[in-house]
């Protein structure tokens, strides 16, 4: 009996467990998944909790509900991987052998990495919304907050779901408008990027939306520290931004066990060097990496994990059969962007193609529009919740091409 071990039972790990359970012969392969947390969180729902759109209980379900029969689930923390011995060591001292290992340990916010961020004002006037606790605490704050300067700050450029801070800004504009206090709220979007987003066409359109909604973008701001006494952000070049309420997107890092295993990348962020096409760990033939745990140059988002999953399944089977890893991931990502007032935009891109306008997933009929605010896009975002619980996590087929399709996209003519 051979062992296939998955570290991490979040979106990517659970999805792969289900795909593999349906594919591998149970008489030949023993499947094990390891995670320290027994609860599964629908993380896209964290965005909606602060504004009262979702109740916090809505986004939590037991992880076991999504594990297939016949697999072993271990709820414990991983201390390290020992690749030379094909073994994973848990913090309780147990050793788990593997023939094939999938690392799906994700990324988490690390506010303690920025001096002053997790200081006396943490969960008083400074919040994150990328955690269940942070989103819930922020909901309580916004329910009674009467206005002032709201600052949304990106501490770094690499973090999960890179469009969520933009969505938060747009939903805040909608939320305060509907409460009748928008004129009492100044919204600043403070980012180390040169614009609202990383991709030029999308950044231009999203920047226009920011201006239209009176959200001031402070670009090229590299956060050094947070002064809790003076309630201000201080950049490395001495620039200061005052706040009354700070919503932070902290530094994101991979799991500590990556550092303990000496497998991390050169940025000291605990992301594992991964072949961006095959999803094989760069230095280990029988280790594969998926989702936010990788250092591949695309968004850390659920859609990416979904598209990676089909490629990873094929390449694991190739590896098992001693064949070349011929399946290639193209960096495909797509994301809905809530823009408030019951509308949303949509972007679809990969390693080589930036977000373009057009229709999705079908030319002409759509029904969704790319780089455009529509009601249909908003409904698509809401519908994704059902698809997430019932299709994505369970590894079922979702009728969207794994590879980026140019159908329906409006490409600039070559001069």
Tell me what you see in this structure:
By secondary structure, the chain is α/β, with parallel strands linked by helices. The chain folds into three domains: 2-106 and 255-320, FAD/NAD(P)-binding domain (3-Layer(bba) Sandwich), CATH 3.50.50.60; 128-251, FAD/NAD(P)-binding domain (3-Layer(bba) Sandwich); 330-415, no CATH class. 23% of the residues lie in helices and 26% in strands. It has helices at 11-23, 132-144, 164-179, 200-212, 256-260, 302-320, 375-392; strands at 2-7, 29-35, 39-41, 60-62, 72-75, 78-82, 87-90, 95-97, 100-103, 107-109, 126-127, 148-154, 185-190, 215-218, 223-227, 232-235, 240-242, 245-249, 252-254, 287-289, 333-340, 343-349, 358-362, 366-370. The strands form eight sheets. It has a five-stranded parallel β-sheet, covered by helices on one side. It has a five-stranded parallel β-sheet with strand order 11-18-12-13-14. A three-stranded antiparallel β-sheet has the order 6-7-8. A hairpin with a 2-residue loop joins strand 21 and strand 22 (343-349). Helix 1 packs parallel to helix 6. The longest helix is centred in the last third of the chain and has 19 residues, at 302-320. The model has no long low-confidence stretch (mean pLDDT 96).
What keyword list fits this structure?
single chain; 415 residues; globular; FAD/NAD(P)-binding domain; alpha/beta; 7 helices; 24 strands; 5-stranded parallel β-sheet
